[in-house]
Write a structure and sequence with these properties.
By secondary structure, the chain is α+β, with helices and mostly antiparallel strands. The protein has two domains: 90 residues, no CATH class; 247 residues, Penicillin V Acylase, Chain A (4-Layer Sandwich), CATH 3.60.60.10. It contains 13 helices and 13 strands. The strands form two sheets. A seven-stranded antiparallel beta sheet has the order 3-4-5-6-7-8-9, sandwiched between helices. A six-stranded antiparallel beta sheet has the order 10-1-2-11-12-13. α1 packs parallel to α5, α3 crosses α6 and α3 crosses α7. The protein is globular, with a radius of gyration of 19 Å.
């Protein structure tokens, strides 16, 4: 599959590699330095040992796109490597942002997500619809050159995932451990809600992440926060709407960077109505705080798209522009994807 992805999107992947200034000016010089070769080798070896088939898929992206091997490797371990070469303040300047609002009540079961990133990443994403050798089908919104998907996805077992970056301080990070992209890719093969949680627990993650696990068949949503050394917290979402930005919310005893962008978004979301699907879209589209809006329009950070997963309708809808305007570009039926996997 990796070769097919690389070949199909080769131009997009190579353009991203050429235009990514953080990659060119920071990541590559660091990775190419003789003294950091043992670190890069350790990162690669540990992830290859844990996920050999996903590693082969990554090598397929390299071969299919004809992109430089080191550049694809560094791109897929972007945040892990950034933690080694930057102080805590500058990590905030170079990473991505996202927002989620989640609820499971008697009348409403929704997961709403803004996919935010540096403005320069705009135009370097794509949707992948694939069938794996084990019969599982998935649809994933992916960043060019990276394993699917560190953004959002769902599979034919009725499981969907959204993700948010979190920012532990450098002392909390093990850069040689498992990269977030490899765990995100592994989740696409989850067979159940419990299996997805188990896959997260089994990964000795490098720096931390927030994975939202959504099971449309059992009508369950969990916000899972992880950190290095197998630290995991699972918060099952109920009738009280739950907003997550880019800070740890429920994993205890973790030192993290205090991010005014995240705290401001959360304060605003907490006071907004969340009684209907339209309310959730209004939360994602809110820009009242001009300095730290939930819906981002640049100049630095940009909401590339928004997604709404309706567990009762079993649909995933992607919105272009401000989701309050309800301009839907794609609607996917999770039931149809399940039926296709049985053919």
């Amino acid at each position: 599959m990796g070769f097919l992805i690389g070949n199909r999107f080769s131009d997009t992947i190579r353009r991203r590699l050429e235009q990514d200034m953080v990659l060119r000016h920071h990541l590559l010089p660091f990775a190419q330095a003789p003294q950091t070769k043992p670190l890069i080798e350790a990162i690669c070896n540990n992830n290859k040992a844990k996920y050999p088939s996903h590693w082969d898929e990554l090598m397929g992206i390299v071969d299919g796109s004809q992109a430089p091997l080191l550049e694809i490797i560094v791109l897929n371990f972007r945040r892990e490597i950034l933690s080694c070469i930057q102080d805590e303040a500058s990590i905030v300047d170079c990473t991505d942002e996202c927002s989620d609002v989640l609820v499971v009540s008697d009348s409403l079961a929704l997961a709403a997500h803004n996919e935010d990133a540096l403005f320069g990443l705009s135009g370097y994403t794509y949707l992948i619809k694939a069938k794996l050798q084990n019969g599982i089908r998935f649809i994933a919104y992916s960043h060019a050159g990276e394993l699917p998907s560190r953004a959002f996805s769902f599979n034919s077992n009725g499981l969907a995932f959204t993700m948010n970056a979190v920012r532990p301080v450098n002392d909390e990070i093990d850069p040689r451990a498992i990269g977030r992209n490899f765990l995100s890719r592994d989740l696409l093969e989850s067979t159940s809600f419990e299996d997805a949680i188990a896959r997260i627990r089994s990964a000795e993650i490098s720096l931390g992440h927030n994975y939202n696990v959504i099971d449309v068949q059992t009508r369950r949503i969990a916000s899972v926060e992880i950190a290095s050394k197998f630290r995991v917290s699972v918060h099952e979402v109920g009738a009280t709407p739950f907003f997550h930005a880019n800070m740890y919310s429920h994993l205890q005893n973790i030192k993290q960077i205090i991010d005014e962008n995240s705290t401001s978004r959360k304060r605003r979301a907490d006071v907004m109505p969340k009684e209907s699907k339209d309310d959730f879209l209004c939360v994602l589209g809110d820009a009242e705080n001009k300095s730290f809006p939930i819906y981002m329009k640049g100049p630095k950070l940009y909401t590339m798209c928004s997604v709404l997963i309706d567990l009762d309708e079993q649909t995933l809808s992607i919105f272009r522009g401000n989701p309050k305007n309800k301009e839907i570009t794609h609607v996917f039926s999770l039931q149809e994807l399940k039926e296709q996997s049985q053919v």
